Amino acid sequence: MDHLLIGLVVTISLATIINVYLKKFNIPTVIGYILTGFLIAQIFYFGDSSKETLAHLAEFGIVFLMFTIGLEFSISHMRAMKKEVFVYGALQVILSGLLFTFLAFTFFDITLKNAIVIGMALSLSSTAIVLKILNENGDIHTGYGRVVLGILLFQDLAVIPMLLMISIFTSTTSSVSALLLETVISAVLVFVSLFIVGKYFIERFFNWVTTSESEEIFLASVILIVIASSFLAEFLGFSYSLGAFLAGMTIAETKYRYRVEADLVPFRDILLGIFFVTIGMQINLEIVGNFIFTILGLLVAIMFIKALVLFLAMRLFMQNRSAIKSALSLMQVGEFALAIFALANSYQIISDQTNQIMIVTLVLSMIITPFVLKNIKYLADLFFKEPIGLRERALTSTGYKDHVIVCGYGPVGKMLIERFKENQVLYVILEHDVKLVDEALAKGEENIFLANAAQKSVLEHFGIKESMAIFSAVSNPHQVRLICENIDSFGDNVNSVVTVKNQSQEESIADLNITHVLNRRETVTDILAKQICAFKRVE
């Protein structure tokens, strides 16, 4: 125990020093933690029990990350993301997994079972690194960020059948049908249990806890829910992170969502740091020295193939620029592959040497990822230039007065514009999704501009102070909050109308100076009917 505590003290000290210096060069903290883990592994000898303790502690980092991501995506939001999760995610995992299986079986002297395990594990990407950097960059709510999140969620689900596959390959007693039936029953139990608890219990539980008026007790209750959900999922054969994500989704439906998120972020980031330290500890210098060219060759080949497969698949559904960003974001191999390789190695499906080569290769791919994500726009420009014509058009379009600003061109935004056209109201549409802007321009809509309404300079540019009103027709809860904060910063003289989807979203902006908050989409028409005559008509 003393040896472990000394190691922890040195690890934290070294991580702090390294990251302070790396931050001066704008290098992500993830790299500092991985480098710390590598150096610590060379300085200290951690026995199997100590490594296992660190691994369990580090796993909580991923658990809290997935929980906070779940807070961003309520059950209704998840239903809206079914295409990103079950179509894009399935395409990525199946296509990449089959291609890697074919290449491994064809070009390497391994059995088909070995090739399938390696191929499917290589199809997985790093949830921990990718979501951490996307959150830091603020890209998690962009078009490509939504796609990346959906694919990562499907990958987390796909880990379950991959682990089941290893059990099938090695099982000498249970039949395949029995294993599949057991997994299906477990999945139903997990989803039904968390759904019932979330719908009928969690908000009442928090209401009861808050009567104590103690932040300490409230935080303890949140941690209890996270750990209990993770344990339930793991007990029934799934990953800890899946249970935490589902718990986050259920809390996202309550009024406590933002308070919970703010309380847990420090714990999440510290524990994630420990997780990345354990990743660095798995770099084996002897393996690197003996197989350096094999490792580098595999590294380049794996990342290139993953990016190419995902880009070719995604360009069927989205613009090339968004597709290349998604591909570059997910071309590394993720932490769940470590678990699959470890289990496969313990069952002797893959050899010790193959296991070590694959571990070093995927760790190197994870080290490269933060640099890729930090420079994603520049890298995307190398392949497909950003449509700066739209940006320039927005910057030169000034002079509006007595107009209505519409933020978002989704279903609600389109309905608003139709009503404005019928009543000859002067309007301006601000939309940050290039695809929606392109579609609108192609249909002859001239008053739409590529701009982010969550930025104060944008609303100033389009004359919010001279406008008759501003409508937020955005569906993303996080973006709604940012836009409302932006509107609130202009003072009391702005006539604002904001649409929300539920009571939780309405309460999340209750502290801001918003003139009208519409809780149901149908009421938009009612408010318009009352106010439309007050808006200045186009001359």
TrEMBL record:
Specify the Cation/H+ exchanger transmembrane domain's residue ranges.
11-374
Which GO terms are recorded in the biological process aspect for this UniProt protein?
potassium ion transport; proton transmembrane transport
Q: Which UniProt keywords apply?
A: Antiport, Ion transport, Membrane, Potassium, Potassium transport, Transmembrane, Transmembrane helix, Transport
Q: Kindly report the protein's main subcellular placement as a broad class.
A: membrane
Q: Where are the transmembrane segments?
A: 6-22, 29-47, 53-73, 85-108, 114-135, 147-170, 176-197, 217-233, 291-314, 326-350, 356-373
Q: Which residues form the RCK N-terminal domain?
A: 404-519
Entry GO MF terms: antiporter activity
List locations, semicolon-separated.
Membrane
Instruction: Spell out the coiled coil positions from the record.
Output: none
Topology in the lipid bilayer is annotated as:
Multi-pass membrane protein
Which Pfam family name is an example for this entry? Answer: TrkA_N
Q: One GO CC annotation, please?
A: plasma membrane
- List the protein's name: Glutathione-regulated potassium-efflux system protein KefB
